[in-house]
Amino acid sequence: MTGQKPPERIEEQLGEEIARVFKHFAPGGKFAPIHDSAEYEKLRESLPPAEREVNLAFTQFAQLLDYFERQNIKVGIDVANAISAAVRLPLEEQAARIREINQKLMERINDAGHGTSVRM
């Protein structure tokens, strides 16, 4: 059993690693939420053009998902599959594909308002 760590130590190390990761998302961490829109825009503008476009498209996607959740409108697995496929594309193609997904989601909002079937 040389070279193997006892299960308790592995669990402890895993717990420590998870705690370190979560600190990145806590206030003050490098991935913490940005509540000041001016600060967020400044950060976005500092990105290279292709990343900036993807960031904007994903921001709009997140806002649409938030709206759907607040309106209790289901988005479905097809949206998850579409986003999963989009992130596998080259960076230059991601923004265009995510904008297409966003457009389909906006059409769903319109369709839901008219009582029609909601599909993508």
Number of helices: 5
Strand content: under 5%
Number of domains: 2
**Mean of pLDDT:** 83
Rounded radius of gyration (Å): 20 Å
Distance between the termini: 54 Å
Q: How many runs of DSSP E, i.e. beta strands?
A: 0
What report would you give on this structure?
The termini are far apart. The protein folds into two domains: 1-33, no CATH class; 48-113. Helix 3 packs parallel to helix 5 (91-113) and helix 4 runs antiparallel to helix 5 (91-113). With 120 residues, the protein is mainly α. Helix content is 69%, strand content 0%. The radius of gyration is 20 Å and the shape is extended. It has helices spanning 7-25, 37-45, 49-70, 77-86, 91-113.
Summarize the entry for a quick read.
With 120 residues, the protein is mainly alpha-helical.
List its traits.
5 helices; single chain; 2 domains; mainly alpha; 120 residues
List the helices and strands and how they pair.
Elements: H1 7-25, H2 37-45, H3 49-70, H4 77-86, H5 91-113
Helix pairs in contact: 3-5, 4-5
